[in-house]
């Protein structure tokens, strides 16, 4: 099914839909999926069959202590029916080949990010209404580039992000073709607070250090939410498209009976959130991955998988609480790693231990010992308690500064020893001292490399010196980069060992040595010596 015979007249609508699907490389698999799901007699897909393809069960329960709203399981139970009703038009109880193609293109086709976000919000609005929640979103027009009006509450943003996480997780689980287990729902509080900080009216912003999302009654305009998502998490809308794509491709690759497996399309929201490092859990890693695209996004995404816990060493290069504090300890663990690095710093202002914050830097290359700034690209992150990303501004290229103690030679004006990001020498936006005890954070006015914004809530104009709690470095170059680093370290250890050894044979015979002659001359300077010829 899905292929018209030579005798049949292909309509322009079908030809256009097949052409768009073929341009994405998905047409052969869509034809297989249509053959598996369709009824041979009607040559169309029954609605319940396509709903089953997009359906899954939510295991676990919420309680009073849970950060997941109690309405969330009911919300997710209406996901599959809402996808079919909203994007796949049916005729006489079935979905034709053309409508099946057009539905796939609406969900997973190539389009601008704003249109994808509108589709995601339309889906969330329909699911909310089916779950019995108050209607907060209104569709201005029914066209493909429809506009959305209305607002969302912070708890709605939390459920929207959790829904995107499940769809993202499901697509990666099917892509891996293995049982990865459940990671539970990650803590997305930092993302919700980011939306509140960016979208709430100035007179309604609250203390972001001490707040409960479930109790907040702040209306966030949907237009501002779209702008926030495009700026902070531009890959968020891809979660829905990848979900639809992965499910249909899974159907194409397996028989109908595979869809009846009870554990394949289930998600346990009560499972414990996975954590690769002390500072990087799955929720923070997922947020960072949503700011990226391509290989870097995929490498960060791997951190979210429970299977990655067995290979922590492939990602975690350095942790100050494990390897010891200081620039020398730091350097001995990251030297030779010539691939992108994610550096996380946890700190708190002096005499205010309760308000800890986490900031980070992503650089697209390995670190080098330089007394000047260098780098090709990178980003700064405010990770906790509020998530923000500061991409390159394009004005300067002072991405990273990493300088160890120089040689013994005298320097009239020695360069500072430490680790820095953005700003300029002596006026860095982030500067970590050589002992990894203090970090200085300056206002963005001193920095022309990264975009402006506060690195932690209530950051003022004056520089702030904070006490470092922990530092973590994760390598994002994959197994190949780690193998190259291991070879580099073995080579350096071999050179060091060779320099320690002294080969006595290189000094020759003592009787013929200049030292022996000098000693003899001192003992008897008048002794007549015959020159050897």
TrEMBL record:
It holds the Pfam family TLD. It comes from the Eukaryota. Signal peptide: none annotated. Residues 290-477 form the TLDc domain. InterPro entries: TLDc_dom. PANTHER family: NUCLEOLAR PROTEIN 7/ESTROGEN RECEPTOR COACTIVATOR-RELATED, TLD-DOMAIN CONTAINING NUCLEOLAR PROTEIN. This is TLDc domain-containing protein. It comes from Solanum tuberosum. The lineage of its organism: Eukaryota, Viridiplantae, Streptophyta, Embryophyta, Tracheophyta.
């Amino acid at each position: 099914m899905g292929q018209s015979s030579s005798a049949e007249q292909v309509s322009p609508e079908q030809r256009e839909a097949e052409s768009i699907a073929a341009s994405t490389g998905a047409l052969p698999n869509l034809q297989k999926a249509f053959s598996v799901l369709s009824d041979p007699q009607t040559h169309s897909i029954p609605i319940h069959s396509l709903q089953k393809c997009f359906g899954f069960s939510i295991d676990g329960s919420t309680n009073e202590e849970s950060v997941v709203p109690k309405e969330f399981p009911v919300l997710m139970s209406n996901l599959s029916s809402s996808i079919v009703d909203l994007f796949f038009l049916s005729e006489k109880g079935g979905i034709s080949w053309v409508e099946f193609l057009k539905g796939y293109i609406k969900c997973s086709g190539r389009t601008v990010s704003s249109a994808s976000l509108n589709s995601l919000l339309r889906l969330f609005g329909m699911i909310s209404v089916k779950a019995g929640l108050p209607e907060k979103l209104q569709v201005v027009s029914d066209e493909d580039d429809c506009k959305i009006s209305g607002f969302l509450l912070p708890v709605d943003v939390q459920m929207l992000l959790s829904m995107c996480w499940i769809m993202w997780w499901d697509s990666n689980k099917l892509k891996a073709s293995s049982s990865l287990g459940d990671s539970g729902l990650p803590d997305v509080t930092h993302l919700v607070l980011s939306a509140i900080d960016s979208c709430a009216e100035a007179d309604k912003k609250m203390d972001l250090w001490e707040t409960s999302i479930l109790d907040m009654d702040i209306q966030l305009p949907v237009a501002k939410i779209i702008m926030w998502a495009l700026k902070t998490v531009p890959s968020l809308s891809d979660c829905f498209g990848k979900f639809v794509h992965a499910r249909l491709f899974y159907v194409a690759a397996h028989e109908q009976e595979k869809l009846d497996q009870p554990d394949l399309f289930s998600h346990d929201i009560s499972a414990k959130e996975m954590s690769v490092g002390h500072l990087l859990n799955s929720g923070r890693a997922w947020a960072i991955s949503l700011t990226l695209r391509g290989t870097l996004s995929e490498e960060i995404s791997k951190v979210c998988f429970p299977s990655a816990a067995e290979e922590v060493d492939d990602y975690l290069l350095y942790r100050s609480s494990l390897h010891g504090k200081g620039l020398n300890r730091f350097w001995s663990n990251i030297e030779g790693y010539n691939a992108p690095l994610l550096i996380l710093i946890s700190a708190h202002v002096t005499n205010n231990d309760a308000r800890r914050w986490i900031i980070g830097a992503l650089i697209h290359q390995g670190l080098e010992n330089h007394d000047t700034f260098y780098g090709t690209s990178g980003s700064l992150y405010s990770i906790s308690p509020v998530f923000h990303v500061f991409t390159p501004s394009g004005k300067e290229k002072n991405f990273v500064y990493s300088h160890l103690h120089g040689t013994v030679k005298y320097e009239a004006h020695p360069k500072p020893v430490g680790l820095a990001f953005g700003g300029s020498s002596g006026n860095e936006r982030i500067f970590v001292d050589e002992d990894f005890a203090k970090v200085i954070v300056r206002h963005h006015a001193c920095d022309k490399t990264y975009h402006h914004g506060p690195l932690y809530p209530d950051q003022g104009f004056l520089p702030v010196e904070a006490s470092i709690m922990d530092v973590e470095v994760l390598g994002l170059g994959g197994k190949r980069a780690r193998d190259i680093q291991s070879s580099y370290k073995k080579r350096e250890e071999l050179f060091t060992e060779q320099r320690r050894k002294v080969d006595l044979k290189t000094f020759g015979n003592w009787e013929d040595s200049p030292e022996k002659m000098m000693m003899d001359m001192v003992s008897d300077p008048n002794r007549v010596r015959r020159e050897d010829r």
